[in-house]
Structures are given as structure tokens and as C-alpha cells.
């Protein structure tokens, strides 16, 4: 399969980068996808979809550190598996903002960033699950829009918005519990 991915790339640097990603992380990506399906063929399909996203977002991936890259690839593979599963089961997605009519216009996240130090926010973010941390990292630190986060993680735009919203609400609650941003 590697040769198929390499044939999609035009520069030697891109080919080398994707080849190293494939050699270093393909097994872990497969394990993440397999954990969703418990089926070899479906897990391989999910990893294939994830590598197609890697190729599409290759320039962004170059900016990630090794740990960020590993986490991103594993989560992307798992999300590709969930997307494939949802596509096959044709589950309808619901936007939580629209369902609950949540759009207060208040940017609590920015207020927290202004009131709190970066270290306090980072410590609060680290208390979240790996998936929520990645969502928050991409959205808050890297300042990606929800649509870009969706592309990077292999989610639908609506699902990405919903998951970012939930992670932000958890972060805001945790920051308030820590007494950050009060007063």
C-alpha cells in the first residue's frame, strides 16, 4: 500500500516524509482502527483513509512535534474507523449547538485565556482525555478552525464542532473549579 501513497506525491521530500510516517506509525494506526472494528479488513480501510488524509494535510503535519504527530496519526486512524463505521451504519449526526440552541455569543474561552496564564490553561487541558486534549490543542493553541480540525482528524465538520464545543465546556468548567479567571 505504501507504493500507492508514494505515487500520489510529487516531491522526494514528501515521499520520504510519508514513507517514514508509514514505517514508524502504521502498526499503531492499525491497532487504533482495529480496536473500533475488531475486523482486519475494516481496520485496513480505516488506515487507508487516514493515510489519504495525511497526504492531503502533509504541510500541516510537518509543523507537529514527534509526540504531536504520533498522537495525531493514531487519533486520525481511530476517527477514520469511526467515520467508516458511521458511514456504514448511516447514523444521523446532530449538531449539539443547534439542538440546544447554544450560541450565547460570549467568548468565555478568550476571557479565560486573557485572565489565566498559559501554564494554567495547559495544565487544565492536560487533565482531559487524549482526544479532548488534541481537539483543544488544535483549536486553541494552533488556532485551527473547526472545519480544519475536522479535516485533520477525519471527522465531519458538524461532529468536530460538537466535540470542540464539549471539550471547551469541560475546559471552562475545570478552569472555574481551579479558580482561574475569577474576579
Structure notes:
The chain is an all-alpha fold and 183 residues long. It folds into two domains: 2-89, Rna Polymerase Sigma Factor, Chain: A, CATH 1.10.1740; 96-177, Arc Repressor Mutant, subunit A. It is 77% helix and 0% strand. The chain is built from eleven helices and no strands. The protein has helices at 2-7, 12-37, 40-56, 58-61, 66-89, 96-100, 108-115, 118-126, 130-141, 146-153, 157-177. Helix 2 runs antiparallel to helix 3 (40-56), helix 3 crosses helix 5 and helix 10 (146-153) packs across helix 11. It is globular and about 55 Å long. It starts with a helix and ends in a 6-residue tail after the last helix. The model is unreliable at 94-104 (pLDDT under 50).
Number of helices: 11
Distance between the termini: 57 Å
Radius of gyration over all CA atoms, rounded: 18 Å
CATH architecture tag of the largest domain: Orthogonal Bundle
Global morphology: globular
CATH topology annotation of the largest domain: Rna Polymerase Sigma Factor, Chain: A
Q: List segments where confidence is low: pLDDT < 50 over at least 5 consecutive residues.
A: 94-104
Order of helices and strands: HHHHHHHHHHH
Structural class: mainly alpha
